Fold this sequence. Notes:
By secondary structure, the protein is an all-beta fold. The chain is 2% helix and 43% strand.
Amino acid sequence: MKSSMIAMSAVAMFAGSALATISPVGPTSQHKDPSFNPLPPFQTRGTTGGIVSVDVTGIESWDALGSANNTVLVLDLAAALGLPSGTPMSMTSVGWDVTLEALDTSWLSELRVGFADSANNFGVFLRPGAGTNNPGTGSFSSGGQVDLTDVGVPNLFLADGVLRLDFHESFDDAANVLDGVWLSGSLFVGVDVPAPGAAALLGLGGLAAARRRRN
């Protein structure tokens, strides 16, 4: 198992444009499907609690969801917002500003990240490069926070304030082969916290989260 540290912090909004897919389920497709999980039209808007940034620079994309080769981040969002560890909250929105690379026969549209609670119950899946059905390098930005309910995805409840991210391929061209890399950028996780005035906690200390490559 390889591990390293990734910094997180509370941030404000950002600008850009978006073409992506967000879905509540994320099975591996059995063939390359350009229309897999289309994202409905949306207008970006904020979240009622706080926004935590996740640096994804250098994360590799190997196999299908659940593979031992995948990179998994375990993030204590409660601590990132200055709340006691274990504070329950819900993931309510997501944003992205990333540069991706798809290798060989893989597509940029196939790099995907799944969001789950600490018990590994997945509720949100994101493909920033959806619609870019070719290998190579591309940059993708949401232009703000996308509210999950605006695109038909239920909020993801986090009973202990911990979020797991599994970086994988929506279609795995070849097992045990590197298919892509998240070259740079960040994901932005919007949460709704139960404590009044939690938004004022933005800007308080950062968070360290373990990045691990499971064997």
